[in-house]
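Work Package 3 committed the consortium to producing structural models of liganded targets before the mid-term review. Because experimental data for this complex are still outstanding, the team generated a predictive model from sequence and the ligand definition alone, so that downstream docking and mutagenesis planning could proceed in parallel. The input record is reproduced below exactly as it was submitted to the modelling pipeline, together with the SMILES string for flavin-adenine dinucleotide.
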Amino acid sequence: MDYDVLILGGGMIGCAVAYELSKYNLNIAVIEKDYDIGSDAALINTATIYDGLECTDTISSSLIRKGNLMFDEYVEKFNVPFKRVGSLYIAKDENQKKYIEDMYSRAKEKNINEVKLLNRDESKRIEPNISDDVIKSLYIPNTGVVCAYDLALAYGEIAFDNGVKFKLEEEVLNIEKMSKGFKVETTRNKFTCKIVINTTSEKELGKELNTDKIEEGRKNNLKYFVLNKKYDSLYSNIIFDIHSSERRYIRPTMDGKIIGAFSTEKSVNYDMVIDKLSSLIGKIDGHKIKMVLDWSLYDEPVVIDDSLSEKGYLNIRAKHFGKVTMTPAIGEIVCKMVVNNFNCILKKDFIDKRREYYRFKDLSNNERNNLIKVDNKYGKVICLCEGVTEGEIVDAIRRPLGARTVEGVRRRTNSGLGSCRGAYCNEVISEILARETNKPITDIVKNTKNSKVALSRIKEFDTM
Ligand SMILES: Cc1cc2nc3c(=O)[nH]c(=O)nc-3n(C[C@H](O)[C@H](O)[C@H](O)COP(=O)(O)OP(=O)(O)OC[C@H]3O[C@@H](n4cnc5c(N)ncnc54)[C@H](O)[C@@H]3O)c2cc1C
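The resulting structure, written out as tokens with the ligand in place, is given here.
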């Protein structure tokens, strides 16, 4: 057999499973079709850590709750930015009141006692700026925000340092059950392995091996408005305003910005979001919006199809708005399933630590000077808006599973996420990528194969 375990998909879940299994003496590879790992984590690198009360399906809700409780341990070990921030679900009419009272009942059933139902005055004491027509609210102190991409990277980098092979830009085409183990065919190779863990959520891939039925969930269109400093101190909790077919919320990012978000199954446009968010923050002046981002967000019940676990196939399916929160729980559960069914021995030399990295703008002047003495690339600021240095960009490329695209650098360093949106630094980052990966600039891409940053040379310059 080429491998003991093949993990299909290098998203957040694939990396978490790789990390957990890399603690054991197993020969493991992750196969990912894109240039980078964890690319479904939101580009703004902040996700809400939910409490599980919003979901009515039992599996998703309990995975979220379990994941939430595991977060502090993981982020501390991995040095991933995370903070606990409470949530306030507000009710302005009878429907919303019923919605939050149902959430409260679910909390009581699960013995989650820290959750509180508040009247208007109590709500106002917690958040003085919520609108006067709030009649009731549900306060959950146990939610939080995390740098989701850093979490995926930490899982991936530690798994890599503990011997997991990452096969990027390689698409899985077919999985075939053999008398012993599996044959996995990709765009580049044919592998054999004892165990396949499919985290791609691709409905067609390995369809014949699944036993559970896939339930179709809801797909929502999501728009994020990243707001400017004027809104920074408006709220100290995450404020949710949930209606039957839409969600509006205001949330802090890990780097202190404020996001206004709106999602619905219908199509969403800019004016609609301005209008909908006005119930939470008043009418937004277009000049106060730093960035607008569009995504699809899903709400499918999560399925861990372990019916074949004794034969070696595990499928983790579903796209879900709380999957970052579930990640530590899913990683641990899948690892236990493998360890319980196969003969796995813990490694004695497992390194449970992510390699050091520096955020120049967060350092004191003394620390900055010391760093520049060691590597003068930290003395050259490339992204002026976010204060990102050449040293950080080079480190993002040279690290284990380093960035290979402009977006990969952006996600790892925050470069290009300031008010100029990379107008100045994207070009310099492309040059650094070309230099560090020893490629012509015409081979450097923004994120996907067809997104070249320079189509062709028009003249032979000395640089570029
Ligand atoms: C805008 C946005 C906001 C979100 N906010 C939150 C939040 O606030 N809180 C929260 O808890 N969660 C949140 N989520 C959810 C969370 O970020 C994602 O669900 C999570 O990152 C998904 O991880 P995954 O590993 O399950 O899936 P993916 O990241 O999609 O991983 C699957 C991987 O499989 C690869 N793949 C697919 N087919 C193949 C193939 N044939 N061969 C090889 N590779 C293949 C894909 O390229 C992909 O990398 C958000 C998601 C989005 C998009």
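Reviewers should note the following from the model. Residues 360-443 form a domain with the Arc Repressor Mutant, subunit A fold (CATH 1.10.10.1100). These observations will guide the Year 2 experiments.
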